[in-house]
Amino acid sequence: MLPVTIQARADKADIAGITPAHLAAGFPPIDTEVQPLLDIELRTLIRHDVATCSMQAEPLDVAKSMQEHGGTCVVLVEDNRPLGIVTGNDLVRVFAGFYCEESTRQLVVKDLASSPVITATAQTSLLDALKVMESRGIHHLPVTDASGRLNGIVSYRDLVVERQNMIAGHLHSIEQEVQQQSIQLVQAREQLQTLSREDHQFSIPNRRAMEQDLDSVHDIALRYNRPYSVALIDVDLLRKYNEVYGHESGDCSLRVIVDYLNNSLRKTDRLYRFSGGRFLLLLKETLETGACILVQRLQAGINALNIPHQDNPTGHMTVSVGLACAGAESPLADSWHDAFARADAALHRAREKGRNHCVISGERELPGSSMSMTNRSAA
């Protein structure tokens, strides 16, 4: 009988026809797998060293030829055109039924061959070949050229291995993509976390970051009785400055002050924007004496910037400061809100004194903090 050649390629709808044996092998027919299987042609999987014999060959001769080629099947040909196929299992069944060589010579291989033989071409897709082999229960598929002559053979095992490799490669690509997306997600989350803690205008920590850091510092103070200080810094008469010079100029002036403060702090100190023209300075491991010295120096430095402000009695921009300490020499409450409230009350007292003052919690004004403005009326 003439061979039956696989002609049509399977499309995505055909994937539903894969047999239960396909599923049992652990390869579910998912849609994302179809196109790669269609793209792989048998030309890359053909074994050209094929054992062949005529239809009249005897089983023993076929077995010897199979052994010489190291294969598990022999293709029966006529004029190099495949007409049938005999596998090692076919020969085993034959030899199991006879006890001597003479008995086997009564048979010829055409009596054992699967016929008509199913063949494929080099252009047949891996998916088509797998579907046909599984549906017909065959393990070897002769491959023919355009004239129908034998070109080589592919085995079911080779196709399954190729499919495994393709799936493994596909999964590896997916894993890499997922890993890359996970890295990007972590980076985006970190960036979002940073943005959520940063004042977008001055690129310094915002109020949310301030509260989180104060929670942490206060917990350490409670556990180990370590001191810290907080200073609330308020730019004097900022609203009037914006009315006269404009909000854009006001933002630029605040930027100058913020840059000065950041560049003047110790590595352990932290500056936060609390609101508008008000900032909080967190001084870790700092007692009242050290905090007073630092705050006086910062206040004097801002005065030295000499940023013009016609509505300020000094003629330039100034700041008022309220300072409070916690731990060690000062009382330590259950939360940082106590130190913050004391610093806020001290700031209000500094403003009441005529601005450009620095007051310590407990109504004590730092000597010289008013920068020769102590006796002048409030602006």
Tell me about this structure.
This protein has 12 helices and 15 strands. With 379 residues, the protein is an alpha/beta fold. It has a 6-stranded mixed sheet with strand order 11-12-10-13-14-15, with helices on both faces. Strands 1-5-6-7 form a 4-stranded mixed sheet. Strands 2-3-4 form a 3-stranded mixed sheet. Helix 12 links the parallel strand 13 (319-326) and strand 14.
As for the CATH topology of the largest domain, it is Alpha-Beta Plaits
Based on the coordinates given, report the CATH architecture of the largest domain. 2-Layer Sandwich
Strand content: 15-25%
Q: Could you state the order of secondary-structure elements as H and E?
A: EHHEHEEHHEHEEHEEHEHHEEHEHEE
- Outline, from the CA principal axes? rod-shaped
What does the radius of gyration come to? 44 Å
Structural class: alpha/beta
